[in-house]
């Protein structure tokens, strides 16, 4: 089925008094590597971009440790530093970076309307969506019960609180492997809870996990319950769930970290922009164009496969170039 069907937009004059609406050529939503790179390119193309940073300025990379695979940093760089540098670079060319959250959009007519913090409307000739993705949770009642009391989806943010203690990390991908090795450097012991009989993480990350003495990988284990008296004190796991030899296993841990993937942040514009079944924005092949003319998508929001800082930055560049071309063609 071809999900990509360009939408026809009607040009519509705003019904709100002129003074109340800010008009911009290029509005960028999101402040990860995709958003900031789009901003650098859009600013250099004289589109005077406004960038709305969102809830987590700097995006997911601000919660990661060392980034060793972004070209140009032979000694690695921390996520926080890299994002601060990207922001500085975007601002150097005139990007207006603003703290705020987009609460609503109206892409049904042109120009597009975006509402920030529930009260400020911006009318944009082009919108670049770079809102990234958010960590997934298992969906257990006990997860929300202990949120902030031992349950976390960010080892680099919260690992510090568990120095010298025992913790668990759920997941078998690169994030889980990275978080487990990071926590192993701080904690006494790390259980890595993996539902399959193998890790999905890259070979290099698997090797790191296997080389780390205080990580114990619990293959074929699922989490039934997180337990404790007010704070996390342990977890009940099921080994070989659904098999004849299924077995309940209890572990004692003070911290319980989720690293089971992410959900794209596309809910607030889904009504207009076509996404796949998992919420990832669908763009035209070899382009960042969405089904809505003048709306472009980049970064993890539209990429369920590569999801790297460098690929996000690359698609941010593409989005700015596509926006520039769109505007040039309208003139
Ligand atoms: P992935 O989707 O790659 O992995 C998610 C993991 O969580 C899988 O092992 C999956 O199990 C497991 N999982 C999912 N749902 C559940 C559940 N309900 N219960 C138990 N386990 C569950 O996500 P990541 O966040 O690890 O990685 C995302 C992308 O980012 C990848 O492309 C990765 O390579 C990249 N990345 C790269 C890094 C780097 O290069 N430094 C660092 C971190 C991420 P199963 O295998 O059974 O599906």
UniProtKB/TrEMBL annotation:
Going by the UniProt record, its keywords in alphabetical order are: Disulfide bond, FAD, Flavoprotein, NADP, Oxidoreductase, Redox-active center
Q: Which Gene3D superfamilies match?
A: FAD/NAD(P)-binding domain (3.50.50.60)
Give the CC-aspect GO terms: cytoplasm
* Enzyme Commission code(s) on record: 1.8.1.9
| InterPro entries per UniProt | FAD/NAD-bd_sf (IPR036188), FAD/NAD-binding_dom (IPR023753), Ferredoxin-NADP_redctase_2 (IPR050097), Pyr_nucl-diS_OxRdtase_2_AS (IPR008255), Thioredox_Rdtase (IPR005982)
Under catalytic activity, the entry for this protein gives: [thioredoxin]-dithiol + NADP(+) = [thioredoxin]-disulfide + NADPH + H(+)
Q: Where is the FAD/NAD(P)-binding domain?
A: 25-315
User: How is this protein named in the record?
Assistant: Thioredoxin reductase
Source organism (scientific name): Ancylomarina salipaludis
Encoding gene per record: trxB
């Amino acid at each position: 089925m071809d999900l990509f069907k360009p939408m026809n937009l009607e040009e519509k004059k705003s019904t709100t008094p002129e003074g109340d609406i800010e008009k911009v050529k290029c509005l960028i939503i999101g402040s990860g590597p995709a958003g900031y790179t789009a901003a650098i390119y859009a600013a250099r193309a004289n589109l005077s971009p406004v960038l709305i940073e969102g809830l987590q300025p700097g995006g997911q990379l601000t919660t990661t440790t060392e980034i060793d695979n972004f070209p140009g940093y032979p000694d690695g760089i921390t996520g926080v530093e890299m994002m601060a540098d990207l922001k500085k670079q975007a601002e150097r060319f005139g990007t207006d970076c603003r703290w705020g959250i987009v609460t609503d959009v109206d892409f049904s007519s042109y120009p597009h309307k975006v509402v920030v913090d529930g009260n400020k409307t911006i009318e944009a000739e082009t919108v670049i969506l770079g809102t990234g993705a958010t960590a997934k949770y298992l969906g257990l009642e006990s997860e929300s019960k202990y949120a902030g009391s031992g349950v976390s989806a960010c080892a680099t943010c919260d690992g510090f609180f568990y120095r010298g203690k025992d913790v668990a990390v759920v997941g078998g991908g690169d994030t889980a492997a990275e978080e487990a090795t990071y926590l192993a450097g701080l904690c006494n012991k790390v259980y890595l809870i993996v539902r399959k009989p193998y890790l999905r993480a890259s070979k290099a990350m698997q090797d790191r996990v296997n080389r780390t003495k205080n990580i114990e990988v619990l293959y074929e284990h699922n989490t039934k319950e997180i337990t404790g008296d007010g704070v996390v004190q342990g977890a009940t796991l099921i080994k070989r769930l659904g098999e004849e030899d299924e077995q309940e296993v209890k572990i004692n841990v003070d911290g319980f970290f989720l690293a089971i993937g992410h959900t794209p942040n596309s809910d607030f514009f889904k009504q207009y922009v076509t996404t796949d079944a998992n919420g990832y924005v669908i763009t035209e092949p070899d382009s960042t164009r969405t089904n809505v003319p003048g709306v472009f998508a980049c970064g993890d929001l539209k990429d369920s496969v590569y999801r790297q800082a460098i690929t996000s930055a690359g698609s941010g560049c593409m989005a700015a170039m596509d926006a520039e071309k769109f505007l040039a063609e309208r003139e």
